[in-house]
Design brief:
CATH class: Mainly Alpha
InterPro entries: MAPEG-like_dom_sf (IPR023352), Membr-assoc_MAPEG (IPR001129), MGST1-like (IPR040162)
CATH superfamily: Membrane associated eicosanoid/glutathione metabolism-like domain
GO molecular function: glutathione transferase activity; oxidoreductase activity; prostaglandin-E synthase activity
CATH architecture: Up-down Bundle
Distance between the termini: 27 Å
Largest sheet: none
CATH topology: Four Helix Bundle (Hemerythrin (Met), subunit A)
Pfam families: MAPEG
Shape: elongated
Strand content: under 5%
Number of domains: 1
Number of helices: 6
Structural class: mainly alpha
Subcellular location: Cytoplasm, Perinuclear region; Membrane
EC number: 2.5.1.18, 5.3.99.3
Number of strands: 0
Order of helices and strands: HHHHHH
Helix content: over 70%
């Protein structure tokens, strides 16, 4: 493990990866807090605990928070895989940092756009910008391992 942490590119990846995981935890907490504030519970046992079965219901803003969280999982988990492998292919630190930073900023903007219902195409542009480094990393990984396939 100590050897991996001394790899500057891998350490840079870990930094942004951990920030993204923390962001996902924050969205989960926000979703839970919105459920409590809106009294909109997904499970009957939770609704009963907080006032009755009438609160076993959906709320548009709770669903918006939940979709933002699901979208994070659909995009951040692949980034974590791609970024880890990419880090091992020997990219330069400035180029790798740019990949990780662009993805991170794109995902933060995407989340803000989702939660605040910012005007289109803000969310779509943030998604697209965040996908560019992922595609780049995937292509570079494939080029690095193609000879072994």
């Amino acid at each position: 493990m100590a050897v991996m942490i001394r790899n500057e590119v891998f350490s840079c990846f870990v930094f942004y990866g951990v920030l993204l995981v923390i962001k996902m935890y924050i969205i989960a907490i926000i979703t839970g807090q919105v459920r409590l504030r809106k009294k909109a519970f997904a499970n009957p046992e939770d609704a009963l605990r907080h006032g009755g079965l009438q609160y076993h219901r959906e709320d548009p803003y709770v669903e918006r928070c939940r979709r933002a969280h699901i979208n994070d999982m659909e995009n951040i988990f692949p980034f974590l895989f791609l970024g880890a492998i990419y880090s091992l292919t020997g990219p330069s630190l400035p180029v790798a940092r740019l990949h990780f930073l662009v993805f991170f900023l794109g995902r933060v903007l995407h989340t803000v756009a989702y939660l605040l219902a910012l005007r289109a195409p803000t969310r779509s542009l943030a998604y697209t910008v965040a996908q560019i480094p992922c595609v780049s990393m995937a292509v570079q990984i494939l080029m690095a391992v193609a000879a072994y396939a």
